[in-house]
Fold:
Amino acid sequence: MNAAAETMFVAAPYQAAGKVVIECNVAKIFYGDFLAVRDSQVPIEKRKITGFIGPSGCGKSTVLRSLNRMNDLISIFRFEGNVMYHGQDVYAKKVDPVLVRRYIGMVFQQPNPFSMSVYDNVAFGLRLNRYKGDMDERVEKALKRAALWKEVKDKLKNSGLSLSGGQQQRLCIARAIATEPDVLLMDEPCSALDPIATRQVEELMLELKERYTLALVTHNMQQATRVADTTAFFSVDISKGGRTGYLVEMGPTEQIFQNPRETLTKEYISGEFS
Amino acid sequence: MNTVDLTVDEAERPLPQLARQGLEVRALKSGILTGLTWLTAALAAIPLISVIYMLLMQGGARLFGTGVVEVLTGLPPAGFEQGGGIGPAIVGTLAMVGIASLISIPLGILAAIYNGVLEPRSWTANTSRFLAKVLTGVPSIMAGVFVYAVLVAHWGYSAWAGGLALAVLMLRTVVLAAEEAMAQVPQRMKDAAYGMGCTRTQVIWKVVLPTGLPGILTGVLLAVAGAAGESAPLLFTALFSNYYISQLSEPTASLSILIYNFSGMPFPNQIELAWTASLVLVLMVLGFNILARLIGQPKV
Amino acid sequence: MTNMFEAADSVSPISGPPRALEYANDRIFRGIAWTSAFLVIALTGFILWEVGRQAAPAIQAYGLGFITGTEWNVNQGEFGVLPEIWGTLYSSLLALALGGLFGIAIAIFLTQDFIHHRLAMIFRTVIEMLAAIPSVVFGLWGIYILIPLLKPGAEWLHDQLGWFPLFSTDLAGPGMAPAALVLAIMILPTVAAITVDAFHRIPYKIKEAAYGMGTTRWEAILKVMVPTASSGILAALVLGFGRALGETMALAMLIGNANQISLSLFSPANTLASLLASTFPEAGHLEVQALMYAALVLLAITFLVNVMGQMVQQYTIRKFEGKR
Structure:
């Protein structure tokens, strides 16, 4: 290592207590020539909610989207490091990104139901996987788990776009969990929702972690304290002219918010910058 | 493909396999579809390339040769005659497109001002906008039929009739395009002018027209390009003539009708001239088109 | 209006009401604009009325028999346009099938990351230029390039598969196949351009959602993008079909103007627009009336197609986009 690299801050690795499903080791993430994220180790624990917080531009979304190779859609994206999922590197040459996304589902910032009926939206993934069993039962189950069944059971044939914003987001969650993915990535799922819908989605997340492993990016620190078991705090380094994000500190949510090790974390959670 | 087995409880599921598995049906299907898409794109390019090649080879022979002056100014040859040119047709096309422009552009822009700015929600605006759209779906030959019924049946074939038929076709394009361009003028700009105490006419002349001008010009030029290339409405309104027009009330030649007439002749000289006329016509139409695009380009 | 502004001392001396001339200008200009907008309405009405009036004698004389009749014989005063209606619909449907398929495929090619987006922009411009080439030029190209090119293939097909209705005659020169092919080439840019717009209107988040579910590129295209863009694609097809129905010159040059009904792709045929184009310039009084009637029939067909297109489009919008 050269001298410049030695002076750069690297967060102390977080030793997870439980079983780790995804071991994310980012060395460098580039968009073209632009170094977006560096040196961040984020283990995602089984059946826990891992929260990603930090100021905007800190790369938390980029890291989350690297986990199921969503960033492959951007042609100039380049990933250095590895993402170990059940002992397999998601970025290995022989890995099909399509398969990765079938096991690691995603819910996006903006509700994005397909322009089809509510039923077809939920059944989409099942049909994609050529599910042979009782489709109706699966759809109902997914909608119930997404706490949407009561509101839509009489309008399954209506377009998914006819629902309200909060309902649309829960529909997207139902669509994502209908195929029983292993992990669910949520990229600021409440940023487009009103407080009541946000509350509903947060409660839903707490229920979902009984069955799934969740990773959540949020801009809202209160949300992280309310739902996340572990929290990873990212920050952005603008001192060297760039805007490179990196992991500052990761630990149990209570420790991060009540007893942070790094001063940067303390400043951020006390609202000194955002 | 390894489907997620949903019947087994999550805890007992086998570990997911992420690796590609040689020749999957899914990958094969994707490959075939991708190949087909490339093939269609390539196939669709063939006629275009062929048309351009023929235009340049057959039509360019005379246009880019030594006989260019004769071709551009000469009279169409008769029968076995050699040489000759397409002069009257060029002048005729320009004259009739000119007549059509003089009628349809002011009328169209004024109607668009009414429909788009003055009273967009009124009965007149809604109806005329709707009918302009309906006219867009009407075959262009109907303009010829209409002008035949109104003018030609009483006064015979003339440049006026041809120009009027083209004007009917241009009008619908100008009305819709100009309204669209004026709709792009931000409401806050208009509000600012109204807030200064402008009358509606002043708002239009000082704000809406200057701001919307590039868009309006684009629409107008596209309409002109379309009219220059039209032939069906001229067929039985302007008819054809072998001579330069001396007055607008007589049958008039046009490039497109010249191409149509010469295309069916058994003489190589005429057929070559038809290609030359095609090249001139395409250059004319493309010229207007490119100009329209350059003007319409958003200014940064 | 007596000037309330002059009475108030506190008003800035610069501000003042518009002059009488400016008010008059405003009135006059608005009047002129209204007249222009109204002229568009009047013109449409006038077109319908005038063509209808001229066709009236023919409508009275031949009635509905005009539509079911198969003869066009001026000397015996027999007029029927069934072969032309058949030819119009047959050639347009063939063109729609071919041009639609290619147009949609090209739109997918240009919008779904098969090529770099700069290259796609260039391709798009090229396609729009293709749309600007006048139809007579395509007609000329059809006569001297396409027909000679099709002849050997048509001959072979007729020899080998002559029992099949589509190949039951030989291609002697002009005919349905070259006409429909050129028509397909002519509507392809329309279909492609509007379909490209429809794909561009799909928000990026929908594409993300599809890939996020673990679709391959083609699963995303066929199961998500195409259904989402379906109303736009339908609009493109209806517009293309409308253009094909009304297209005149290329068909008049390529279809052979033969008054017959045949399934064969290689036999000459006729269309309504091409009948108008080829017959009008030399028509006598009686024939002009019949042609006006034929023009009305063509108008009715295009109108029906557009209305039906609108209805189907409304239906798909409701089905796929959930707007009411």
The radius of gyration of chain B is 27 Å. Residues 1-8 of chain B have pLDDT under 50 and may be disordered.
